[in-house]
Amino acid sequence: MHSIVSRINNTSAFLSSCLMALLAAIALSSFAFTAQPQGDLAISSIKVVSSNARRYPNKKQDMAFVHFNITADLTPLFHWNTKQLFLYLEAEYANAQGVKNEVVIWDRIVRRKEDAFIKFAGKNKYMFRDISSSFKNVPPANYSLKYNVMPYVGMLTTGEAARTSEPVAFPPTQSRL
Amino acid sequence: MFTEELKAFKRLGFRHVLLQVLNFASVIASGLMIWKGLGVITNSESPIVVVLSGSMEPAFYRGDLLFLTNPAKELYKTGDITVYKIPGADIPIVHRVLETHEVKPKRSSKSKSKTQDASDVAANQRLLTKGDNNYVDDIELYQGLEWLERKHIVGKVRGFLPYVGYVTIAMNDFPQLKYALLGGLGLLALLQRE
């Protein structure tokens, strides 16, 4: 009954259940933090340029170049169970064929609370193209800044920090930048 | 040392051995039932996965455990972290959604109904993914496909538990460990006295 093996067994079982309870408590505690910070997002300019498609060099493909300004204070999202923030700027639009699209054009990983005050002005990091390969007759698009809070342990949550006040139209295609 | 054990083994008799074998089998069966039950609830073929590569660093490292769900009627959004498996590729990949396109389903003669089912819309969603730690999107990983489709997706990451999955990576990297562990467990199950 009181052999070494059974002692080791009991101790390790107890320790692992303590650890599980602690992790569950930490995971649940992050539901108590319900900050929803709001920031500002403004699109300063959009250009649509005709270029060659990535896989098919003979096919034409419109690329949109979006310049934007972001100001957002996301420090409230950092609590003791926040490992990092994944911040991304997304364009939402329905194209001329009625296909609804969401395209991420910029992202940033924020790992420290000190870096969570975002003030950024720049252009899209990823290619912004439509699946019909043309932005002709595409209705105006909405842009929004969203975040994904990634915990040390537990559930992943998402939220929206900013949105353009009104849809931004695509300009006519130009042949060169 | 082993003579003692063998004596004990003989004293316990055949029935005891059978009982232990039965116990062992029931442990394995209940494990399998829990796994498959979770799969049914979450609508995912593998509701818990272990991260195998560093392409999502610093969010996920090798050996982290991810919990997935895959509701049939829910559309995927950008920023969601998906686990997908391309036919022909042997391991599932954990990457974040970069683009979604709700392509209209092709009109087939069989489905005459005007109202589209939510799961029908979801099934026609096209996705493009990218690893947080990669510079380019995943189009090269799709083995010739232009977009990722719903049928390739195993699930969406909902929960995260660090390090725990490293055991399975260690067992894959050092197969001896796996056999030692299995053999040890089997021996313990057989020799244990209640």
UniProtKB/TrEMBL annotation, chain A:
Biological process terms in GO annotation: protein targeting to ER; signal peptide processing
Keyword Transmembrane belongs to the record: yes
PROSITE patterns: PROKAR_LIPOPROTEIN (PS51257)
Keywords, sorted A to Z: Endoplasmic reticulum, Membrane, Signal, Signal-anchor, Transmembrane, Transmembrane helix
Residues making up the signal peptide according to the UniProt record: 1-34
Gene Ontology CC annotations of this record: signal peptidase complex
Localization terms from the record: Endoplasmic reticulum membrane
PANTHER family linked: MICROSOMAL SIGNAL PEPTIDASE 23 KD SUBUNIT SPC22/23, SIGNAL PEPTIDASE COMPLEX SUBUNIT 3
Assigned protein family: Belongs to the SPCS3 family.
Function: Essential component of the signal peptidase complex (SPC) which catalyzes the cleavage of N-terminal signal sequences from nascent proteins as they are translocated into the lumen of the endoplasmic reticulum. Essential for the SPC catalytic activity, possibly by stabilizing and positioning the active center of the complex close to the lumenal surface. Essential for viability.
Name of the protein in its database record: Signal peptidase subunit 3
Source species: Hypholoma sublateritium (strain FD-334 SS-4)
TrEMBL record, chain B:
Enzyme Commission code: 3.4.21.89
BP terms from Gene Ontology: signal peptide processing
UniProt catalytic activity: Cleavage of hydrophobic, N-terminal signal or leader sequences from secreted and periplasmic proteins
Residue spans crossing the bilayer: 12-35
UniProt KW Transmembrane helix keyword: yes
GO MF term list: serine-type endopeptidase activity; signal peptidase activity
Localisation: Endoplasmic reticulum membrane
Bilayer disposition of the protein: Single-pass type II membrane protein
Sorted UniProt keywords: Endoplasmic reticulum, Hydrolase, Membrane, Protease, Signal-anchor, Transmembrane, Transmembrane helix
A GO CC term assigned to this protein in UniProt: signal peptidase complex
InterPro entries, per the entry: LexA/Signal_pep-like_sf, Pept_S26A_signal_pept_1_Ser-AS, Peptidase_S26, Peptidase_S26B
Membership in a protein family: Belongs to the peptidase S26B family.
Subunit annotation: Component of the signal peptidase complex (SPC) composed of a catalytic subunit SEC11 and three accessory subunits SPC1, SPC2 and SPC3. The complex induces a local thinning of the ER membrane which is used to measure the length of the signal peptide (SP) h-region of protein substrates. This ensures the selectivity of the complex towards h-regions shorter than 18-20 amino acids. SPC associates with the translocon complex.
Function summary: Catalytic component of the signal peptidase complex (SPC) which catalyzes the cleavage of N-terminal signal sequences from nascent proteins as they are translocated into the lumen of the endoplasmic reticulum. Specifically cleaves N-terminal signal peptides that contain a hydrophobic alpha-helix (h-region) shorter than 18-20 amino acids.
Protein name, per record: Signal peptidase complex catalytic subunit SEC11
Species of provenance: Hypholoma sublateritium (strain FD-334 SS-4)
